[in-house]
Each structure stands twice: as C-alpha cells, then as structure tokens.
Amino acid sequence: MTINTSVLPVIIAGPIVRKAINKQIVFWLVTSQQYQCCVTLYDENGTKVYSATLTDKQHACITVGKQAFVNLLNIHLTDDLPDNTWISYNITLKNSTNTFNCTELNNLCYENQAYPRFWHTTQANHVLHGSCRKPHHKSSDGLLAVDTQIANALKDKNPAPDLLMLSGDQVYIDDVAGPMLSAIHQVIALLGLHSGSWQNEDIENSEQLLSSPDCYYQRDKILPLFEGDNDNFLDFFKGKKKRVFTSVSAHNHLISFAEVMAMYLLVWSPELWEFVTFDDSKIATKHQQRYQEEQKVIEEFAKGLPSVRRALAHIRTFMIHDDHDITDDWNLTREWEEIAYGHPFSKRIIGNALTGYWLCQGWGNNPEVFDEIYQQAKDCFSSNKMNNIDALIDTLLQFNQWHYSVETHPKMVVLDTRTQRWRSEKKQTALQV
C-alpha cells in the first residue's frame, strides 16, 4: 500500500488525559507527522491558567513508523491547578506546512463546548474502574458508559467522575479476532509502522509472517515450542503440549511490534477505521464463517470509538498491565518465565507487547521514572526502522518501577502484580491454579 500522507488524519489517536494532579498534567496522542506542540489551559471561567509552546523536555516523541509518532506531553506548572473544577485545554500542533488544533477533531467535544476538559480534584471519591476490554466480545464497550457519565456531568445531572482507573487487559494481545487482525495489517501498511525480524526457524520477519498460510486463525502453528523436558509444564496444559504460550485463543496471537502498535491505535480511536476494508480473501474456507460472525461484532465496536475517544479526552486516566496486555498467564510462575524468556522468539513476542504497553499505557502514569527508557527508545526507533530492539526489550523486562501512586485523598496506590510476581521463588515450581 502506498502511503498518501495528504489523506491521513493529523491526530491518529488521542488526545488522552493521563496523569493530572496538582502541578502536573500529562497528555498522550499519536500523530501522522512530527509536530511542535502548544498547550493552553483554561479554568472554569475561561481564564487562561497556562499557555506555552512545549520544550523538548516537556514534549517527548517516539517515531514508531513513517507516518506514526507517539507524543507524551508532560507539563509541570508553577502553581497548583484549581481544585474541584473543570480544566479546559487546547493542543495546537505546528510544523512547517500545517497548524492544527485538537478541537478540529470531529466529535471531540461535548455539546456547547469550545474545548475538551477534565474534572480536576485532589479527591478520589468518584472513581471509575475498568478492565478486560476485548473488541470482539459480544457486548457493548464498557467505555461507552464513561462517555455517558461525563456527558451527564457536564449537563449538571450528576457529579463528575474524579478519575478512571484501567487495571489491565486494555488490549488482548493473545486473543484477536480475524477481522481485527486484517485491520491491523492494513494500518501497518497505511502508516508504515516499523516491521521487524527475530530468531525463529520458520518465520523470521514481518513479511514472512504476513505471507504465511498460517497468518490468520492458525498462528498457534507459528508460535514457539517448548523443547525442554519439564513434565509438570506439559501435563498442566493438556491439549497445548510443548507450546510456550498457554492461551486457548492464540490462533491470532499478535507477534510483531507493528501489530501491537496498530492494535492500540484501532481500539482507542476511530480515525483509522475509515481506511479499513474488511476482506476475507486471505481467510481459509474453514474459517470464513467465524470471520464473518466476528466482523459484525468488530463493526459495532468501531462505531462506538468516537465516544470512547471523546471520553478519554475528558477524564484523567491511569493504567496498569495484567496478563492479556502481553499474553495469557504472563509471568504466572518462575517456571513460566524461564521457559518463555529462554526462547528467543517468545521473548521477542513478549518484548514487542511490553514495548507497546510502555508507549501506550505505562509511560503516561509516571513519566519521570521512564527518562532513561525514553532516551534508549529514541535511539531504537528511527524514521525508517527499529535499531537494536533486543536491547530495549531487555531494559523493559528488567525495569522494576511499573508501580506508582497518585496523590489524591485517599491516596491511590497501583501495584505491579505481574513483573514482580514470583521474585521470592528459590527454584522452579509447577504452574499453580
């Protein structure tokens, strides 16, 4: 697919309000070009409380594709934000050829609003909680309820929610519908997302993966095998013997970094769906009916994304990983870790997912602890390719500050229950239930 940059949206995903408390506000967004950012904040009376073109220290940017840039805007204020009030904002993007305000996004603002806004308070009395968001689950997207609550609060019908806590499984890397995987591949081509290569006997890079007859609904044949002699591991997962990954739904398990990145863009924003065409020509006959059934559900999911994007632009949102953000049973035991990280292909698959998690979720929770990772990632991701991705993955796998706290009243403490899960084990133990 040839990339026609003139038709790509300026903002591919976001803006999402992330950490915002006292003197700090963090925004996350993905753009199709590299921009300089100006942020303006207004209090409830429309008075400017901050306006500046952001410096390199305030505006971090990672190039994840030829037409895809992840931006984290981290603003430290001199004075505390006003408490118990709506804070409105505008993000203006500028480069040599274009100026764009986030307010130009269709349906970003609610009725009678000039700017997006979020409720700022030091209290945590009305906290919304969500987890386990699977696009092909046959029910309405739970984030649509967040949009309804915010809309009602802006009409003075209900108190505004103080914040949103998403406690894991915001994407299912290990359980993907066929139509979603097809959409992912179209987005990869559209944006020129960075492909990759890895150590594996049969399929060694993204191009071979896409051309494989097992690419759709048969990836369990591609995923790495465990070739050891640990009977406990093999006996526990009957029917999946010698598979490193334990998911019963791994037939479309994401593998490359580009696939992970495209998934995030497609579940948080409506912008790229207009470029997606559902085509089952690459789907084997025996999977056609399943594809068509999943397509109906995915189409309904995509219809709700304008409301999801609007909601996430209007509420402080914190996140933490669970297993499906990476793969089912991630770090379930020390034995699992030794098997999974001892195989270069499974380690790369996990590392690609963890890189996507950092860029799209973890980074915005507490940006300061990721300064060294950001510098390494800038060197890793260039405009044309990924450089030394294995070194970045090693750094992320060894990182031990995914946890964080939020200085609300009461204080919110968010634990990392996945990467620190079995550190006290002295030896391998069988997988537990």
Give a description of the structure.
- InterPro entries: Metallo-depent_PP-like, PhoD-like_sf.
- 27% of the residues lie in helices and 19% in strands.
- The chain has 433 residues and is of the alpha+beta class.
- The strands form 4 sheets. Strands 3, 4, 7, 8 and 9 form a 5-stranded antiparallel β-sheet that branches. A 4-stranded antiparallel β-sheet has the order 1-2-6-5, with helices on one face. The protein has a 3-stranded parallel β-sheet with strand order 10-11-12, with no helix packed on it.
- Helix 5 (257-268) runs parallel beside helix 9 (344-360) and helix 10 (371-380) runs antiparallel to helix 11 (389-398).
Topology at a glance:
Elements: E1 11-21, E2 24-31, E3 36-42, E4 48-53, E5 59-65, E6 68-76, E7 85-94, E8 99-101, E9 117-120, E10 127-130, H1 143-154, E11 163-166, H2 178-191, H3 206-211, H4 231-236, H5 257-268, H6 288-303, H7 305-312, E12 317-319, H8 334-341, H9 344-360, H10 371-380, H11 389-398, E13 404-406, E14 412-414
Parallel strand pairs: 10-11, 11-12
Antiparallel strand pairs: 1-2, 2-6, 3-4, 3-7, 5-6, 7-8, 7-9, 13-14
Helix pairs in contact: 1-7, 2-5, 5-9, 9-11, 10-11
